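Lab manual, section 2.4: Encoding a predicted structure.

Procedure: take the sequence of the chain (469 residues), apply the prediction step described in section 2.3, and record the output as structure tokens. A sample record is shown.
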Amino acid sequence: MELKLPINTILAILACLLVCSCVKDAEEEVVNYKPGEGVQYVFRGNESLPELHINVTLAEWNRLLALYDANPQTRQNIRCDVTYLKNGEATRIEGAGLRLRGNTSRRRPEEGSGTHRAAGTDWNHVHFSLNFHKYYKDPRHELHGQRKLVLKWFHEDPTYAREIFCYDLFRRDGVWTAVNAAYCRLFLHVEGDASEVYYGVYGMYEAVDENYLKVRKERFGDAGGYLWKCRYGARLNIDDTDFGTDVGGDVKHVYELKTRVESFDAAKTMLQDFIYRLNTLEGDVFKEWISSVCDVPFLMKTYAMNVAVGMWDDYWCNKNNYYIYMVPDSVSGYRFHFIPYDYDNTLGTSQNHAYQTDSGRQDPYNWGGTSRPLIRKILQIGQYREIYRRELLRLIDPSEGLMDYDSAVPRILEWQASIRPYVANDILEDMVIEDRPASWGNHPEYRVYTYGPDNWFTVKAASLRSWLE
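Recorded output:
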């Protein structure tokens, strides 16, 4: 009997065979990557846009929906399998963890309530986190050395560029504490559905975790210190009290220990000692101490970039969105490192705040509140204030090729050209690249890549020169 198949079915079978032939199963092949090699593979050299395919059983997906319904801020994981495709090579990891991410941008993955609707699902864009080490802590459950990935849709960023631009800028200027970032295409398949759903183009970010520390061990001097995630309210003031871990629950703390949680008391004592001295020491004593526990010129370099890109949802202005890494030290007791984080609210996307109403024209010496001692007290020291001033001016200097209009815009346009064919998605959200800030922003006139009087880069450059020269 002759079996006749439709041409579309034949093509689909051939495509599947082609993909399967190049899959490297993480359970069959283990590669021990040196620190940094996996980062280079995952986040660099995108000759083709990487794809992430996530497969979830119906029971696990329904569990995720139920977890969200019980607590929209849930940080519980479900099991999934992941296939990562890049430049014709595929890597499969079975038994990874998948969870929802986000704060004000957090949403239910499906509209409505109850269990998954296989037919006619009304999907939502959501942020995800993949934890390849959640259930199996071995090299087979790593993506080219990476143990976690953060996946973010371009929430209220129709340019598809703001956060990618900022992390790229950090890297170009040698701020090695910033995470690596790249674009990817994201697909999700729930068991029983006729096909996978295409989520569209996502930002793919290196997680700030143990592996992040390991990759940067030589620069930090140690990868076995205490890593703290700092959320809204993290002023580094003496009366700050909300310290904790995320082990075993969904409660979020202002200061949340992410590594060596078994030594929480020692970690808390160390951070509180730093906060106490930061607030109580003055004059030359303060200068000598802060210089002994922190690379202050590097901190000023980092914070100059923070202000230059208009990061208002930060430590100085909004007491939010950063990490601290405390490394025990035999001489000074510890070393303090500030890690920048979360840059979607930049390049003209901002809100009115008690300390500023225009992130493009705000005085860079008064970016945020005086109750933020880390920056306020350091900028009172003449030599560090001058470093900060020079770094801001260098960022907008055309000869540096960093953040002037003629250097920044071509990079953004090149990235947009590479992702534009893939922006349309099955979610039917964020389908078009446009040059405007978030709809809720306080300055809807700002433009990123369109030349004119309201272009962010030209406005920011002119403003910084008026304050600093």
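Check your result against the sample. The mean pLDDT is 92.
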